[in-house]
Amino acid sequence: SYNGFNRMVEFCKTRVPQEVRARLEAIKDDAQAVEAYAIEWGVQTCKTLLANGHNGLHFYCLNQDKIVLPIIEQLRAEKLLMN
Questions:
Q1: Cys-Cys with 54: which of 20, 26, 40, 49 at CB 3.0–4.6 Å?
Q2: What is the pLDDT of residues 24-62, one digit of tens each?
Q3: DSSP state of 56
Q4: Cβ(66)–Cβ(34) under 8 Å?
Q5: Contacts of residue 16, Cβ cutoff 8 Å, sequence gap at least 6
Q6: Cα gap 70→74, rounded to integer Å
Q7: Nearest residue to 59 (alpha-carbon basis) of 67, 68, 70, 50
Q8: Which residues of 61-82 are buried (b: 16+ CB within 10 A; e: fewer)?
C-alpha cells in the first residue's frame, strides 16, 4: 500500500527516486494501481540488476508475497530466472 511504502521508507531512511514518488503520489488512492506499479517497478529493477551481471536475486517480501510472486513469475516467463 502507499501508506505502508511511506512507513517503510521513513523507517529505513531510504532515498526514493523522484519519478517513483511522483508515480505513487498520482495513484496513492487506488490500491490495485499501487500494487500493479509495485510489480512493474520490481520487474524492471530485477531486469536491470540481471542485465548488469548480478547472477541472483534475494527478496525480502515482509509478508507481501502477493507482490513478489508475480515479479518472479514474469521474470521466469521471460526466461530471466530458472524455475
A1: 49
A2: 999 999 999 999 999 999 999 999 999 999 989 999 888
A3: -
A4: no
A5: 9
A6: 6
A7: 68
A8: eeeeeebbebbbebbeeeeebe
pLDDT on residue 27? 97
- Locate 39 and state its grid cell: 510489480
Query: Each residue of 20-49: b (16+ CB within 10 Å) or e?
Result: eeebbeeeeeeeeebbebbbebbbeebeee
- Write down the residue that cell numbers 508475497 correspond to: 65
* DSSP at 80: S
Distance of CA 19 to the CA centre of its chain: 14
DSSP, res 81: S
* pLDDT per residue as tens digits for the range 67-83: 999 999 999 999 998 87
